[in-house]
C-alpha cells in the first residue's frame, strides 16, 4: 500500500484513488453495487396460505385484509414483481417445510375509515402473498393500560399474539405531532418481560405512518424508539404516507375499494415489506442469540449462587 502524507505531514497509510479527487459525495468509497436478478420463474407466484390449509377461525378473526378470490387474483399486489423475495421464502421456508414467518400487525386508529388500518391491510396483503402467516390485531375493546385489567381477554389476546410472532408491523397515524394513544396503549400492554419470557426481544419490526397533512416522520421516529425499548430489530426502511385521505380509492372503488393508489409512497411500502421478510428469514434461526446478554447471565448466576447458599444447612457455631 502506498504511504501518502496529509496536509499536516502525518503519514496516513491510505492510497488515494485519482478518481476520488473532487468527489463531493465520496462515491469512490462506496461498496460496489451487486445487481440481483430475480428468478423469472417466480413471476406472478403466490405463496399465500390457501383456504384449504388455513385455520378457519384464524382466517375469520385475524385476516380481515383478505379479498374475494376473483379480486385478489388481479389486484396490484398480485402483479408486483417480488421474484427475489418469493424465491428466498420458497427456498428457506416452503421447500424445507419450515413454519411460515409469523407476523403480527398493529394499527393505531378506531375510526370507521381508518387510514392506518387501510395501510396495515395493504401491508398485510403483500406479506401474505410472500407466504407469511399474517395476523392483524383489532384494538377495539382494549382497555386503557392500568395495573388491574391484565387478565382482560383483549390484553391476553394481544400478549399471546406478540409471544407467537416472529416479527411485527406497526402502523400509526400522526396526531398532535406523534403517534396516537390507541397505538401506544397496545404497546404499553406488551411488557418487556412476562416472568422469564420477553415477548418481543429479538423480533423484527417494520414501521409506517399516515399523515393528515404534508409528509412527516415524527411517528415513525417514535415507533423506532419504542421498538428499541422493546428490544426489537427495526428494519432500516420505513413508510410515511402524506395526505393519506388522497392516497386511497373510495370504499366502492376498484380492486375491492379503499386501496392504496399508485405512487412512490406505495412503492416504498412494498420495499418495506420485502425488506422485512428478508431480514426476518435471516434472523429467525438466531432469535435465541438476541436473548443472551452478559448482564442477564450475571444476574442469573448471582440468583443461583444465592439460592444454593440458602439451601446449605447452617453450621453449628455454638461452643
UniProtKB/TrEMBL annotation:
Homotetramer. It comes from Microthyrium microscopicum. This is Arsenate resistance ArsH. Transmembrane segments: none annotated. Residues 102-245 form the NADPH-dependent FMN reductase-like domain. Keywords: Flavoprotein, FMN, NADP, Nucleotide-binding, Oxidoreductase. The keyword Glycoprotein does not apply. It holds the Pfam family FMN_red. Residues 298-319 are annotated as: Disordered. Its cofactor is FMN. The lineage of its organism: Eukaryota, Fungi, Dikarya, Ascomycota, Pezizomycotina.
Amino acid at each position: 500500500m502506498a504511504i501518502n502524507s496529509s496536509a499536516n505531514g502525518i503519514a496516513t497509510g491510505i492510497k488515494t484513488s485519482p478518481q476520488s479527487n473532487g468527489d463531493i459525495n465520496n462515491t469512490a468509497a462506496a461498496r460496489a453495487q451487486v445487481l440481483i436478478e430475480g428468478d423469472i420463474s417466480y413471476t406472478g407466484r403466490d405463496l399465500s396460505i390457501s383456504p384449504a390449509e388455513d385455520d378457519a377461525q384464524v382466517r375469520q378473526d385475524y385476516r380481515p385484509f383478505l379479498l374475494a378470490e376473483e379480486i385478489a387474483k388481479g389486484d396490484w399486489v398480485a402483479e408486483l414483481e417480488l421474484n427475489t423475495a418469493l424465491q428466498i421464502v420458497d427456498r428457506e421456508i416452503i421447500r424445507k417445510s419450515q413454519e411460515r414467518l409469523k407476523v403480527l400487525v398493529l394499527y393505531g386508529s378506531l375510526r370507521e375509515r381508518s387510514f392506518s388500518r387501510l395501510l396495515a391491510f395493504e401491508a398485510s396483503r403483500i406479506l401474505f402473498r410472500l407466504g407469511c402467516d399474517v395476523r392483524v390485531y383489532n384494538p377495539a375493546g382494549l382497555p386503557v393500560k392500568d395495573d388491574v385489567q391484565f387478565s382482560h381477554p383483549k390484553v391476553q389476546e394481544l400478549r399471546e399474539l406478540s409471544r407467537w410472532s416472529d416479527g411485527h408491523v406497526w402502523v400509526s397515524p400522526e396526531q398532535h405531532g406523534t403517534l396516537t394513544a390507541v397505538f401506544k396503549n397496545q404497546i404499553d400492554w406488551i411488557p418487556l418481560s412476562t416472568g422469564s419470557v420477553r415477548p418481543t426481544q429479538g423480533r423484527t419490526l417494520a414501521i409506517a405512518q399516515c399523515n393528515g397533512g404534508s409528509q412527516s416522520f415524527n411517528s415513525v421516529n417514535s415507533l423506532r424508539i419504542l421498538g428499541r425499548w422493546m428490544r426489537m430489530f427495526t428494519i432500516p426502511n420505513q413508510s410515511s404516507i402524506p395526505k393519506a385521505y388522497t392516497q386511497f380509492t373510495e370504499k366502492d372503488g376498484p380492486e375491492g375499494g379503499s386501496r392504496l393508489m399508485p405512487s412512490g409512497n406505495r412503492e416504498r411500502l412494498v420495499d418495506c415489506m420485502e425488506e422485512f421478510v428478508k431480514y426476518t428469514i435471516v434472523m429467525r434461526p438466531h432469535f435465541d442469540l438476541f436473548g443472551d446478554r452478559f448482564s442477564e447471565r450475571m444476574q442469573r448466576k448471582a440468583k443461583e449462587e444465592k439460592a444454593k447458599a440458602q439451601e446449605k444447612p447452617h453450621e453449628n457455631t455454638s461452643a
